[in-house]
Amino acid sequence: MASELSFTEENYLKAIYHISAESNESVNTNALAESMNTTPASANDMVKRLAQKNLIGYQKYKGATLLTKGKKIALTIVRKHRLWEVFLVDKLGFKWDEVHEIAEQLEHIKSPSLIKRLDKFLGFPTMDPHGDPIPNEDGIMKQTRRASIAEVAINTRGIIVAVNNDDTLLLQHLDSLGIKLGSRVGVLERMDFDGSVSISIDDGPKQFLSKAVAENLMITLTDTK
Amino acid sequence: MASELSFTEENYLKAIYHISAESNESVNTNALAESMNTTPASANDMVKRLAQKNLIGYQKYKGATLLTKGKKIALTIVRKHRLWEVFLVDKLGFKWDEVHEIAEQLEHIKSPSLIKRLDKFLGFPTMDPHGDPIPNEDGIMKQTRRASIAEVAINTRGIIVAVNNDDTLLLQHLDSLGIKLGSRVGVLERMDFDGSVSISIDDGPKQFLSKAVAENLMITLTDTK
DNA sequence: ATTTATTTTTAGATTAATCTAAATAATATT
DNA sequence: AATATTATTTAGATTAATCTAAAAATAAAT
Ligand SMILES: [Mn+2]
Ligand SMILES: [Mn+2]
Ligand SMILES: [Mn+2]
Ligand SMILES: [Mn+2]
């Protein structure tokens, strides 16, 4: 049977999913431990547990990879996390930099019908407040083509669809600049010296972003004119 | 510091609250164990833990009582449970007999601002879908005067505000009779032989209720005419 | 190819929450 | 008052999840 996973097991599966989504490689113990804010010994213990349950593939010294069943669970957690974030922002009026920790708890509520109804109540959203795609019930999410403002060509225009960083300080900085999801961005100039860029938001005045900030701002390419 | 209670500790506090709400006596080990679906040994262990934390008063062989701090926590859990039940019914369209188990999970989400916003989003309700009062932030709830249909005088009129039983079979039976919270009831007759009663719902046709059903239907007294 | 450094795994402890079975205390019954 | 019954507590184990410290394997550097 499904045998009901613990919150901890679910969180590990999600961490393995997120880490391997970037690298496409098997997830090594140290990276997993760091992501989970725990020790390599603990991560190793859990990896063995999850392998036992046929949720991940694991061989000694060779890291972990999600198996079909584990990946499906991970995507369900991601789906719930992002749907709840939409609820918190759209319905309860939270700001987008306040919702992650609460969603971290809500994502573990076990009730398929709850998520079905929540999805409908929210109007079947495809993106969370940070622009990350929401997997559907089958774990499929439409991958929008993206690039960071730091790497995009001059004169590129696009729409901000994601911020690759949950750091509250960054999110608040963006708020103060009037930058939010859905903002239309034009990339005007790039200083080769430090990688900083000048941009305009919604055809407003020129503003400057450091490379560190620009790297975290993902846009969909709409127009290169 | 608050030191963050576990779900289990919260559930025990809530159970102690509910059991002692009826009897006004200290809660004995066996009753607590039964309510928690566990063994007396486990309940006894937990009672010692909670006493250690000054949440409950406890002396060997003399049962447990909530202390100020523990009662406040218990009432917060009850508040969250009932607010979430309102959400599930009013916003997501669940039926009132489907929400308890989900609320049992949601009640443990830790975020005061979430509950504040949820309360506002729901329009500051004072009753949950089963007619139970929702404690405010200070743990105060307005106690409506209630009586069961089984004990009320003939010709009493009132509004159904609670069903004293979570049994799905009962709740479905009531649904089939068109009886729900907020229904206006007139008590027409009572058979002394078996305690069954005839009533009308919302001035509709005469319907019969067994004593067992009538006992679980609580009304507020509006009119004795 | 050795040596050094890093990563990964194991061994052994700890804490929360639970259980079974046995012991003890409190009640109830003769 | 002695005995039987019931309620409560303790003793000893178990499981999940975690840790520290030590051992083993792999990778990197000389
Ligand atoms: Mn998030
Ligand atoms: Mn989580
Ligand atoms: Mn309930
Ligand atoms: Mn609960």
Structure, briefly:
By secondary structure, the first copy, chain A, is α+β, with helices and mostly antiparallel strands. Chain A is built from eight helices and eight strands.
Description:
Two copies of one chain form a homodimer. Among the domains of chain A are: 2-66, Winged helix-like DNA-binding domain superfamily/Winged helix DNA-binding domain (Arc Repressor Mutant, subunit A, Orthogonal Bundle); 147-224, SH3 type barrels (Roll), CATH 2.30.30. The first copy, chain A, has 225 residues and is α+β, with helices and mostly antiparallel strands. Helices cover 42% and strands 17% of the residues of chain A. In chain A, the strands form two sheets. A six-stranded antiparallel beta sheet of chain A has the order 3-8-4-5-6-7. Chain A has a two-stranded antiparallel ribbon with strand order 1-2. The A-B interface holds A 88, 91-94, 98, 101-102, 105-106, 109-111, 113-114, 117-118, 121 and B 88, 91-94, 98, 101-102, 105-106, 109-111, 113-114, 117-118, 121. One manganese (II) ion is lined by residues 11, 104, 107-108 of chain B. Chain A binds a DNA duplex (30 and 30 nucleotides) through helix 3.
